[in-house]
Amino acid sequence: MSISNRLGSHRMPVVALLILTATLLAGRILQAADVAIVPGDTRGIPRNQWPAIAALRGQPAFMSAVDSAPGLARLKWIAHDKMRKEIVTQLHEHLFTGKAQDSEVAHLIGKEQWDTRQTLLHWAASEGETEIVQFLLSAPGVTANVVDGTHGRAPLHCASRQGQRPTMELLLAARGIQVNARDWKQRTPLHLAVISGQDDAVMALVNADSIDVTAVDEDGKSPLQHAMEGWRRAKPSSARQHIIKVLIRFGAGFGPMSDVTPLYWAVHHDHSDIVELLLKMEGVDVNEGGGNQPLCEAVMQDRPHLVTMLLEHENIDVNAGHPLLLAVQIRHLRIARMLAQHPRLDVTSQGFQQALQMAERYGYTQLVSLMNDRCSRRKLSRSLTSGLFKNPCFSMDSVHDVHRPAQ
């Protein structure tokens, strides 16, 4: 058989081999992974990064890289109306030609109206469009801190308010991100996450570098105050409960000018459910209020239900601030009787003696009887104790043999 006949008989396999080779080469240009590989170059090119794609301009892989950028492809898919299509078309053109100024690209992404209230970047952040946010943040001239014209909010505000943690993570990792940025109401992203009850977003923010958990808005309210008020306004939920716990654990208070503790604030505002929550938390000092004791505040406000909750705490100091004397002075007799019966009440203190004298002067016979009974029981207890340990006639010899230790 001639050589020509042999080649002719294998023409189809050769064609198939050529097709296979072309397919493999094309696969080297664009892969389904997150990088594109250029023929002759082993370096990975990020598929969703504007600068990396632009660097391919003039190379065979450039057109495919532009068209397959996940963020841009997603934008083309969701741009249904004329306004959005125009923005996407311009972005595609700017990336393709590279002739636009950085300021033009930045304006298109961070200032141009994408919907009725938001720019493209703000919208993508609030909707959790991670591929789009990643692509837009890589565009020339774009800053993650750009503010909208509606509320003066940055994209991080929008993502935090909607609880979009994936886009929040991208924004928090962006160069120069201002985690404590203020909107027109002086609210930070943490404020908005708390107000919206987004516990996952709160967790992301409190762990961010340079976060200010005590920042106050134009109303003088910190995130913790909004969290407690939100607990009362909305139906209590595990998410809002978690937010309060997280904020307190990260040192949140009521602003840099306030030393009031969360427990004192809750007592002052008669938030019994929050008081109950705080009393069960580790690290919460039941006696610390920032200048006044929570127990004294409950007495002052005549809130027996809160007094009961506080008195049941194992670490309560029933003598600090003389709450019994305060109760007698302002004639809150029900609370005074509760305090007078507490086992750790110091009946020898000056506050107790003054309260007893005042109760006698006011004619509070039941309270006086109760307080005198406490004094009598203490005297009896001391007398028995003194006799037990100081009586020289008392010795082990006077103890019945059955109680003696075994020899």
TrEMBL record:
Signal peptide from the UniProt entry: 1-26
A Pfam family this chain is assigned to: Ank_2
Assigned keywords, A-Z: ANK repeat, Mitochondrion, Repeat, Signal
Annotated ANK repeat ranges: 151-184, 185-218
Top-level taxon in the UniProt lineage: Eukaryota
Database matches in InterPro entries: Ankyrin_rpt, Ankyrin_rpt-contain_sf
Record-given protein name: Uncharacterized protein
Organism encoding this protein: Plasmodiophora brassicae
